């Protein structure tokens, strides 16, 4: 075995923590082909479907092209049984990559539109399927329920209601995603205030396709506990200072940012710069299918781009454990278990 192969094996087998992974972007291509053929969706084979659900090497890299993949992906949620299968496979794939703790986020309104069920029913369906798979694989799983800022506030209110109904099934947080460049967080203030008051954690997509002001709004208006992406914070000294002072973690997704055209190459991604400036950074895949990547591969790419060590990768995972949306004692147990295991890896 070469040194490179040995390193790949070591990283693959490391227990990991992922805080930012979308259910809708994590499906198996082979399963989508089966579903498409079953429902007459003119899906010939995996290679014919791939360009519609995955970013390809030679296609334009921009947010609209990246998001177009989800318009296709959401057509496959045809029945409750399909949803159960898709969720189960997402959890199985995460466990196969030795992810020990995963926070899986999803947008119930988008998923239930084809089936025609209520958002509450969809949250229950996803949680029940995920919890069964998590128990079978030994992965620890929690859920983040997401809404879009470019949709009506009433949709957000219904999303919060659905999330609150299923906290006992593992819903721990509320997320605001969507078009941050053209839609403000301010209309959603009451929703997120209520969520915080009843004990839900808050994460907000910000500073991904808009500037650092978007991150400031997420922090000051919605009082986010974590920021989804947030890489454009690097361009505003005051926002960086605020992130450090608050200890707010960024859920960074370098390959996703590359494929959506936010950065031109991985070495130009500010993740290492943000880390060196004292911002709490974590490493995530965002959408494994759309980006054609696993968390292990993301770690190895980052290692190469910034000449990082294995100890650097361990720190990314430990920071994620420290900022998991868990009760304090459970978060400490997760951190301690990872730390003990990492002490045996060199």
Task: Summarize the structure in words.
The relative contact order is 0.14. This protein has an eight-stranded parallel sheet. It is globular, with a radius of gyration of 19 Å. 52% of the residues lie in helices and 14% in strands. It has one domain (8-342): TIM Barrel (Alpha-Beta Barrel). α11 (237-246) links the parallel β6 and β7. With 346 residues, it is of the alpha/beta class.
CATH class: Alpha Beta
**Number of self-contained structural domains:** 1
The computed structural class is: alpha/beta
Tell me what the CATH architecture is.
Answer: Alpha-Beta Barrel
The biggest beta sheet is recorded as: 8 strands, parallel
Give a quick summary of the entry:
The protein has 346 residues and is an alpha/beta fold. It has helices at 3-13, 29-38, 46-53, 63-73, 80-96, 108-115, 119-137, 153-165, 189-197, 212-220, 237-246, 254-259, 271-276, 288-291, 295-306, 310-322, 328-342, and strands at 16-22, 99-106, 140-148, 171-177, 201-206, 226-229, 249-252, 280-283.
């Amino acid at each position: 075995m070469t040194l490179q192969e040995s390193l790949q094996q070591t990283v693959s087998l490391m227990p990991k923590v992922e805080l930012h992974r979308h259910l809708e972007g994590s499906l198996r291509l082979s399963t989508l082909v089966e579903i498409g053929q079953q429902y007459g969706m003119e899906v010939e084979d995996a290679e014919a479907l791939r360009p519609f659900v995955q970013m390809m090497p030679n296609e334009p890299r921009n947010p609209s092209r990246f998001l177009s993949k989800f318009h296709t992906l959401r057509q496959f949620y045809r029945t409750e049984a399909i949803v159960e299968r898709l969720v189960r496979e997402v959890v199985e794939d995460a466990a196969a990559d030795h992810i020990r703790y995963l926070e899986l986020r999803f947008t119930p309104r988008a998923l239930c539109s084809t089936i025609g069920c209520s958002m509450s029913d969809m949250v229950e369906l996803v949680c029940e399927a995920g919890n069964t798979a998590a128990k079978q694989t030994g992965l620890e799983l929690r859920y983040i329920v997401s809404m879009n800022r470019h949709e009506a506030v009433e949709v957000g209110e219904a999303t919060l209601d659905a999330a609150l109904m299923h906290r006992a099934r593992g819903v721990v947080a509320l997320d605001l995603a969507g078009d941050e460049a053209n839609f403000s967080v301010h209309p959603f203030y009451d929703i997120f205030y209520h969520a915080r008051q009843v004990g839900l954690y808050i994460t907000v997509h910000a500073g991904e396709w808009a500037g650092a002001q978007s991150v400031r709004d997420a922090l000051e208006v919605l009082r986010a506990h974590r920021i989804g992406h947030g890489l454009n914070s690097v361009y505003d000294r005051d926002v960086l200072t605020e992130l450090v002072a608050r200890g707010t973690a960024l859920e960074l997704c370098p390959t996703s940012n590359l494929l959506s055209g936010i950065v031109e190459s991985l070495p130009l991604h500010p993740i290492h710069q943000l880390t060196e400036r004292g911002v709490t950074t974590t490493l995530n895949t965002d959408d494994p299918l759309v980006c054609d990547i696993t968390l292990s591969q993301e770690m190895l790419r980052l290692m190469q781009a910034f000449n990082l060590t294995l100890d650097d990768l361990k720190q990314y995972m430990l920071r994620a454990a420290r900022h998991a949306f868990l009760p304090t004692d459970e978060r400490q147990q997760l951190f301690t278990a990872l730390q003990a295991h990492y002490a045996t890896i060199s």
